[in-house]
Amino acid sequence: MSQRHAETHRKRAAPAVEWALSRSLVDYPDAVRAMQERAAKIADGAAPELVWLLEHPPIYTAGTSARAEELLAADRLPVFRTRRGGRLTYHGPGQRVAYVMLNVKRRGSDVRAFVSALEEWIIGSLADLGVMGETRSDRVGVWVRRPDRGDGAEDKIAAIGLRLTKWVSLHGISLNVDPDLTHYAGIVPCGIAGHGVTSLAELGAEHSMEVVDNALRRHFEHRFGPTTDAATPLESSSVMPAT
Asked: Using an 8 Å Cβ cutoff, are 20 and 52 in contact?
């Protein structure tokens, strides 16, 4: 059996990942608590893997590598310290956050390859939405070229920040659909100066969140295997089964 066929067989044989959606804004501490509870159950074999789609109220989050000088406006929005990797980022309405609670050990135990798979997931979804996303070898996340802003100009459209506990991932991706991009002025996003941040709406690819979610689910299944609607809400959250 070829490596490609073996990978396809592995995806088909794997249990379906639950897919859940919160329709109202979820406070960040509640989301972190719910993720931790679910990840512990996944690690113990007591619950299936989960992808959780949501939006947060406007906040900044600081990962384990965040630097104080990268918070340019400390009084602009609430700042939450988090144990995910990475530096400072913004979350808010109009941004699709997808928290991925997946067993990375079962998926090859290669964290770099896992991050690359997440990037490819976003890039495939963006292509369906009319935007060409790209990766950079020296920067995590997904980028789009902006020739309208000068030679070599590019903006970030999606960020990735992860934490592993017992080989189960927490946190995940954030894709800018139509957020208030002015909030990024209060930080150095992801610690990367000299580049901008954009969104689908700013690029002229205006889509409803439902259309974005459908693209994300379609390409997640292509990359990671089948999904199924979440059977029950997460504890301490407003998660509802996907519809």
From this structure: yes
Q: Ramachandran region of residue 168, left (φ > 0), alpha (ψ -120 to 50) or beta?
A: beta
Please say whether the beta carbons of 117 and 224 come within 8 A.
Answer: yes
What is the b/e burial string over 67-96, where b = at least 16 CB atoms within 10 angstroms of the residue's CB? eeebbeeeebbebeebebbbbbbbbbebbb
Q: What is the pLDDT of residues 187-230, one digit of tens each?
A: 877 656 667 899 999 999 999 999 999 999 999 999 999 999 99
Q: Which of 53, 104, 170, 190 is catalytic?
A: 190
Closest CA to 39 of 235, 222, 227: 235
User: For 135, phi and psi rounded to 5 degrees?
Assistant: -105, 165
pTM (2 d.p.): 0.88
Looking at residue 70, its pLDDT comes to 81
190 a catalytic residue = yes
DSSP type of residue 151: T
**DSSP character for 184?**
G
C-beta atoms surrounding 232 within 10 Å: 11
What CA–CA distance (Å, rounded) separates 39 from 82? 16
Among 64, 56, 65, 67, residue whose Cα is nearest residue 91: 56
What kind and span of H or E run contains 223? Answer: helix 209-224
- Regions of the chain short of the pLDDT cut 70: 1-13, 190-194, 232-243
Backbone φ/ψ region at 174: left (φ over 0), alpha (ψ -120 to 50), beta: beta
